[in-house]
Amino acid sequence: MRADREGGWLAAFYFLYFCALGAFMPYWGPWLHAQGQGPLAIGILTAATQFSKVLAPNLWGWLAHFWGGRRIVPWAALITAASFFALYLAHGHFPMLLLVTLAFSFFWAATLPLVDATTMDWAQYRGAAYGRIRLWGSLGFIALSLGMGWLIAHWGMTAFLPGILGFLMATWWASRHLPYGGGGSPRLHAERPRLSDALHERHLWFFLLAGVLEQASHGAYYAFYSIYAEQHGLDSVTVGMLWGFAVLCEVAFFWVGDRFIRHWGVPWVLGGAFLLTALRWGVIAWWPGLVWIILVQTLHAASYAAFHLAAVHWVSARFPPALRARGMALYASTVYGLGGGIGALGAGWSWARWGGSGTFTAAAFLALSGVFFLIWALRPRSALEKKVS
């Protein structure tokens, strides 16, 4: 009974967190445009939300190492909501918008890696599947990416801020009930493993570099997929359905993904995810017809869900429990923060010079180049390296 309640709160957190994210990502740019911001300002403000993920998770992971997630996550969630509310006060002034964007992004980026670490610890202790908890986040993203569109269609951009703020407050409430591992500050005299020992392991850095390349390859998809599809004759309704279909495939993999990992192992799932990611971008680049685009949207289950699920398992196994939150933070900040930011900037540069087909071809090569570093990351470790973890 207790395990069901704990799992329910974890699922609720992911659902509410990604409801807010699903409402934010598609409509942040249009909301800024409605506030009178030009293309350059929108690009800067969007990049600010990405690059805040580079520093923030590492800082919060370091604090959680000493204070525990119970002290960090609820406060970070509450300050995220308060900072987001401050957008009401910006009144379209760029300097104020930038300051507020950096503030809420900094605290928003704190929560997810720490909750991922909590969920992995809980799943291992309870014999549960991480993927079946995490899939609720994908369902939340679908619900609000579609739901916010309906609200905006009826009430305009005035629905953007209150709609997201409500879910941020609900996320804070759910964060107060999560099954954190003990919480509170550890005893000062207790011996704790050092992060520096884990950081000396070269396999970790090869893995992170591979992840940066894999995630950077998604820059073309997140920034230009809708534009590219419409250039090839698809209307906006069809494009929206394709986005939703991709996330449904992601949900399906999260449901069965832990079985894949138990049967095939993390290395094979990761390798397959990288190769299928490259295949996805290559098909979009060279065969952009409707049938092929629908078929390769199923590969979102590989390029995002399989990669993320296997990566979380790999990182979790690489760090001892006392350092797991910091390991997850390092993974999130490097792969999604740095990789996502580089991918978005690179996609804009290549789109202006090479067009859509060239940009997605470059994305395919990025994912393929990640395989080289992944092979080095998955090589057997020496006896000395095994002592670290």
Describe it:
- By secondary structure, the protein is mostly helical.
- The chain has two domains: 1-179, MFS general substrate transporter like domains (Growth Hormone, Chain: A), CATH 1.20.1250; 196-389, Up-down Bundle (Growth Hormone, Chain: A), CATH 1.20.1250.20.
- The protein contains 15 helices and no strands.
- The chain has helices at residues 2-34, 39-67, 69-85, 94-126, 130-155, 160-175, 195-199, 202-216, 219-231, 236-264, 266-286, 290-297, 300-318, 324-377, 383-388.
- Helix 4 (94-126) crosses helix 14 (324-377) and helix 11 packs antiparallel against helix 12.
- The two termini are 33 Å apart.
- Mean pLDDT is 83; it is low at 182-190 and 383-389.
- InterPro entries: HcaT-like, MFS_assoc_dom, MFS_trans_sf.
- Keywords: Cell inner membrane, Cell membrane, Membrane, Transmembrane, Transmembrane helix, Transport.
- One of its GO terms (molecular function) is lactose binding.
- It comes from Acidithiobacillus ferrianus.
- This is MFS transporter.
The CATH class of the largest domain is: Mainly Alpha
What order do the SSEs take from the amino end to the carboxyl end, as H and E? HHHHHHHHHHHHHHH
Q: State Rg.
A: 20 Å
Contiguous low-pLDDT stretches (5 residues minimum) are 182-190, 383-389
GO molecular function: lactose binding; lactose:proton symporter activity
Membrane topology: Multi-pass membrane protein
Protein name: MFS transporter
Subcellular location: Cell inner membrane
